[in-house]
């Protein structure tokens, strides 16, 4: 829940003038109130995502945005299951799964988030670094790669190897211009979900980060 009209315009102008070559797919997710304005003013190859959507397409759910409304507005992407939605608003795995199903059903492209808290990591429960999001603590490139490798292996075993190979698994957790190049060396790291750094000029450098 960051930004203002002036900041959003500044970010859009920076991206439009960044000479992005389309090698890296770039998707930005402004607050809902700015979605239409950003969508109308951002230039390709950058695309736009909503930060959340609901499990159904219509009804008495004041304050929610349906996946069908997002699709109707011409927004192609939606982020679901972000750690803040889970920790602050009670989005359980079941709720996130229902949201993903509803979004896919109307043709939206989904960035589905999974992760762990610092307490869970210290107990050895899971590996994904929610503990790194917005904290300045960053998983090492090897830690991130190990988790992404395990996730891809899980997809191969539980779904199919073609699906595992085709799924893009992106890392989110205090990514910035200084660490993105090293993180990108991981064979199973297919990109980044950028938080605070997306509000700063260094976001352009992250967008241009190349996988070796």
From TrEMBL:
One of its GO terms (biological process) is glycerol catabolic process. Coiled coil: none annotated. Signal peptide: none annotated. SUPFAM superfamilies: Triosephosphate isomerase (TIM). It catalyses: D-glyceraldehyde 3-phosphate = dihydroxyacetone phosphate. PROSITE patterns: TIM_2. Pathway: Carbohydrate biosynthesis; gluconeogenesis; Carbohydrate degradation; glycolysis; D-glyceraldehyde 3-phosphate from glycerone phosphate: step 1/1. GO terms for cellular component: cytosol. Keywords: Gluconeogenesis, Glycolysis, Isomerase. InterPro entries: Aldolase_TIM (IPR013785), TIM_sf (IPR035990), TrioseP_Isoase_bac/euk (IPR022896), Triosephosphate_isomerase (IPR000652). GO terms for molecular function: triose-phosphate isomerase activity. It holds the Pfam family TIM. Its EC number is 5.3.1.1. It is an enzyme of class 5 (isomerase). It comes from the Eukaryota. CDD domains: TIM. Belongs to the triosephosphate isomerase family. Homodimer. This is Triosephosphate isomerase. It comes from Trichosporon asahii var. asahii (strain ATCC 90039 / CBS 2479 / JCM 2466 / KCTC 7840 / NBRC 103889/ NCYC 2677 / UAMH 7654) (Yeast). The lineage of its organism: Eukaryota, Fungi, Dikarya, Basidiomycota, Agaricomycotina.
